[in-house]
Amino acid sequence: MNPPLEDVLHLSVFQKKALKKLGLETVFDLLYFFPTRYEKSLAEKVISQIEKDEEISVYGRLFNLDTGKTWKGRAPIARATLADQTGKIKILWLYQPYIAKMFRENSMVRVSGKVSERKGELSFINPKIEKVEEVPRTIFSENGAGPKFPLEPTYRETRGLSSRWFHFAVQKILKTSFLEKLEDPIPAEILKKYNLPSLKSSLIWIHLPKKESDYVAAKKRFAFQEIFFIQLQKQRERVEYEEKESFKIKKTLGDLSDFNKKLPFKLTSSQEKSVTNILDDFKKDYPMSRLLEGDVGSGKTAVAAIASYACITTPPPNNKYGELQVAYMAPTEILANQHFKTFIEIFSGLGIKIGLITGSGCKKFPSKVNPKESTVISKSQLLKWVANGEIPILIGTHALIEKSVTFKNLAFIIIDEQHRFGTKQRAKLRKKDGILPHLLSMTATPIPRTLALTIYGDLDLTLLDQMPAGRKPVITEVVSPKDRSETYEKIRRELAAGRQLYVICPRINEPDPEKEMALNVKSVTEEATRLQKEVFPEYEIGIMHSKLKKDEKEKVMESFVKNKIQVLCATSVVEVGVNVPNATMIIIEGAERFGLSQLHQLRGRVLRSSHQAHCYIFSDAKSGKSKDRLKAMTTAKNGFELAEIDLEQRGTGDLYGQKQWGISDLGMEAIKNIKMVEAARVEAREIIEEDPELSSPQHQPLKEIIEGQKDKYHFE
Ligand code: ADP
Ligand code: MG
Hints:
Layout: H1 5-8, H2 13-21, H3 27-31, E1 37-40, E2 43-45, E3 55-69, E4 76-84, E5 87-94, H4 99-102, E6 108-118, E7 121-125, E8 128-131, H5 138-141, E9 151-154, H6 163-175, H7 178-181, H8 188-193, H9 199-207, H10 212-242, H11 257-262, H12 269-283, E10 289-294, H13 300-312, E11 325-329, H14 333-347, E12 354-358, E13 361-365, E14 375-377, H15 379-387, E15 393-396, E16 410-416, H16 423-431, E17 438-443, H17 449-455, E18 460-464, E19 475-479, H18 484-496, E20 500-504, H19 524-535, E21 541-544, H20 550-561, E22 567-570, E23 583-588, H21 596-603, E24 614-618, H22 624-635, H23 639-649, H24 658-661, H25 665-671, H26 674-690, H27 700-708
Parallel strand pairs: 2-3, 5-7, 10-17, 10-18, 11-15, 11-16, 12-15, 16-17, 19-24, 20-22, 20-23, 21-22, 23-24
Antiparallel strand pairs: 1-9, 3-4, 3-6, 4-5, 6-7, 6-8, 12-13, 13-14
Helix pairs in contact: 9-10, 10-25, 10-26, 10-27, 12-13, 17-26, 21-23
This protein binds adenosine-5'-diphosphate and magnesium ion (MG).
């Protein structure tokens, strides 16, 4: 049904490799490798017949390839002569001298562009050029005839595979009986209802459109299809866990009031609402699957702690002794350690034991010697106490889901910054026990509503959309290059008052000068050196990025926490949610390179203190549009608003973390369209409600796809 490409196409070893590099192995892979854009095809002629000012394509061989400088000696150029049986024409490429090196003497090419004339001589200036295998025969019989495909698709090319190659390969496949046998997985009623073309038409229209409306309709279908398939998968997962038994935890907010009074602050009403949502879920017949979405600093940890308390003060079913257990998983050791500390503060004095497990070791609270402190213990000891239920709360990193970790009564899993965990990992944690634990995912990643509905379609959503009282919002300024030094002076005053500073740069190292088009943006290493030398010689400056070894990272972070380093130069990938209350300032360099939601997350790092926090967005954006976009950072109310603006203005490819989700650019286009997302959701739900296992014969193609895509999308 889906044969390997080499069974249907003649492929050289080199082409096979190139295809593999693009991840294209089967016929379907190729058919789902869509053009990135379309260009109007030009008429084709032989050289002797071309005329001044016309836009055409010509086939021929290249000669006299050469580089040089323009006449006035300024611009580097490439030159060549194109020849066919009928004549010759000169070609000139300004500012693209490398073209002369990309082609060999005597190679067969197609040149497309406008014909210029100077002093009676015709030439091409800056035309498009591509290598071809052979000259299409039609050109000699019907010279000047209109092109067969009025729109020429352009594909993401790689060495050895040009757009032309794709164009012909796809034509060849579409000519076989392959299409005839193709079953459309989307039920016909749905296609009709939303006026979407069939799979067969869509495949033809997206690769070989005759007119614009062809590929527009095809794209609409494929965008819908992607979201629809994701929704189906999510709805199915939902039904699956709704059939599972759960640990009943019957507590009300009132039952927990003594505990809540112990907290050093009064809960925001948003936090109360979130806790209530969770407590309601805890009572249901099936396990909770809830996502708590809240900006950095909105107080998710407290919500997690209260829910944990409700859990660990509930005895297991059929067992009067012991309590239910909680596992709290963080994406990094730094964060796991931080949560461990916070939980110790919150739970101190209640006689509740807390364990910590990370790759670097294990700890337990309280220590026998000092009941106010934690102590290092062996992993085997910790695991024993977790397995026999003596330790009700276990906090940790991925180490939590190792095989060796077993719980006696794991009833509740909390995952912080959930998008960093895969579905499989979640499943692993859940499977440890007979009964499926409740799940609370927490994230500060601001994403638009349509995206949340899609990728978290299996979860119930709670928004923590209120900041704790008394928190001063970060003062954000967009700083243009001329105000740089003034800003550094402002920062110096704050540093002198004992505060600390983050400096975020878009890259780790200096650009490689060998690489053409290397981006000229600030790097962590370079900027740290510069700041040390020229700007803040009186302070300690540290660096932090993903290429550092784990222990180096931890050392730097620890020095920063202890204020041994006052300025931390880092990339944007540095752990989200790290708590350094004394770091109240953040500079973001090359800000136009980041999405707004990402900038917002970066800014969230300085939201942890009672001191006034500042965010300085350094940008040398010249265009008004870029500047306006950054201005939103000073006006938008919260991360969700910024995520919506991101989606609207820059759209695809710019949402923080898109790569992690695995949604295609086309799928992201659909995410822009609330109607389409809702339609996909409604239809998917209807199908799953009617046929939860997708077992009816008419749903077989769908079932196959849903099962095949399980590992494709990584939403947690
Ligand atoms: P996040 O949602 O980013 O995980 P945290 O849970 O780390 O946020 O909370 C950020 C800070 O706010 C912590 O220092 C916490 O003690 C404090 N905090 C949480 N809730 C409240 C509240 N209701 N009032 C005041 N401070 C709070
Ligand atoms: Mg947090």
